[in-house]
């Protein structure tokens, strides 16, 4: 990040405390650092007792790790949240309209707003979904939209997660731990609740009952199993919703109807909240060597006997090159101006833009179109000569696989680190639930924080942590 860039601090340092943080400022001034350190250790004990971990299998050592948790909440005023919520709902409606169009008439391609190659040659495009009508015309039923802030009223969408977005369990458990550690703090602040998210998720899933559902839908959560990095979240959400957590071997499809094996015999399943990727979902249609999915799931879906959430093929909306066109989707499908801004983005598949990126590589963030988790990314201002040269070669070899963006001056919030309380950069992942009946957004979301001084990478696999996100009710 350029050293002369002004960074917006959400608490208000050093210019004075902003109104949403007034009570937090008073609290921090009254609590000794030793007490915060003690509470941080208590939080770690609680997280270990509950079993909140994520898995990293590529670095050796203990694969199961705690995500670092910061005790100082991030605070949003009600008016700030309402602006965000309206923008999130608008963006989710546009993305779902786009997904329906992609698998039906492809009007946005014919109108020239999105290049055909970006859709039909995309690895996430699933031709098997063509012409299939889904309940409410919704495809991305659970969407995580990653946001960053650069000023009091300046929010940008970094990316859209429409396949199987994770992290909501950390949002819920962060709040639970904060309530246990600092009940008095909550009594002094009017904080909007998030504990009803599982109820909202269950209501969303129920609204997505397939056309041929015989009555109240039976819902299950399909997990790849205990070795998946997000298995804790799968088990947590299934338990909170009161639905069965199943693996592929627990299900079968007969005559295009899905059943669950139970001790009382076969039970029909109508809606599957699946956390298994498209490729592994149905070995009869996608990867034939998959042991994680269920043969015939896709045919049960096409026959109108089963709803899969999120829908197969929704991942095309995750593509970082498709992301460039989301503001135009809002205009095209909704006839509205976008309420949320994209980060200005260079499409490296275009020769003029590639030339600019190569000339300014040391100033830009370069991302792989299909990358995630902070991998496959170059942060130009923080990169050495060797890394810059390696990315230069990658861009020249496969420019269509990359986009580039300016290095934003991400906002900071107060964070308790070893040296005391210091500003650290954050992002925000709100979760948008798109049912056949309506769109639901629980106030707040998962705040991820870059714990290293000056770092912009918030991913837990890259040394980031999380915070509780407070939306004040008044």
UniProtKB/TrEMBL annotation:
**Stored InterPro entries:** ATP-dep_Glu-Cys_Ligase-2, CP_ATPgrasp_2, UCP005522
Please state every residue range assigned to the domain named Circularly permuted ATP-grasp type.
73-450
Could you tell me which PANTHER family the record lists for this protein? BLR5612 PROTEIN (PTHR34595), SLL1039 PROTEIN (PTHR34595:SF7)
Instruction: Output this protein's name.
Output: Circularly permuted type 2 ATP-grasp protein
